[in-house]
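Bumping with the actual sequence this time:
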Amino acid sequence: MTRLAIYPGTFDPVTNGHLDILRRGLVAFDRIVVALAENVRKQPLFTLEERKAMILDAMGGDARVEVDAFSGLIVEYAQQRGAKIILRGLRALADFEYEFQFSHMNRRLAPEIHTLFLMTSEESSYVSSSLIKEVAQFGGDVSAFVPELVRRKLEERLGAPRLAVAPAPRP
C-alpha cells in the first residue's frame, strides 16, 4: 500500500521553505502530489505550467513527486486522488491560526482526511512567496531563498536585479 499525501498551495513561486517541507514529507510518505491551487483570490505571477516546471526542476525529477493542479475544495481533490493526508507547512503563529481554521473545516467536510503539519526550518520561518516577489521586484537578492531556476525566472519576469551599491568613500 502506497502512503500518499497531498501538499497543496499556490507555490507562486516555490521557495526553499516549500521544498524543505516537501523533502521532509517524503520521509513519511511514499509519494506526494504537489497540488497547485488555482486560487481565485490571488493573481499569480507565474502560470500553472511555469510553477509545475520550477517545482519538478527543484526536486531533480524525483519520481515520488507529482505536480498537478486543482480548483475547488482540497478535501474533494484528496478524495479523488485516494489520499488520506494533506501536508501543510507552518512558519509562525499567524500560519497556525489560518491553518487551524481550514483543518477543522476540512475535517468537518471529510472526516477521513487528516492534516499533517510540519514546522518550517528556522532559516525559512519568515520567508513567503509574496515576500520573495516583493523583494525581487525591487531588485533585492533572493538567491538564498529560492532555487536557481526560480531566481532566474523572477529576474526575467520582474527585471534584472540592481547592482549592489558601493560604500560611500571615506572623507
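The C-alpha cells above came from a reply further down the thread. The chain has six helices and five strands.
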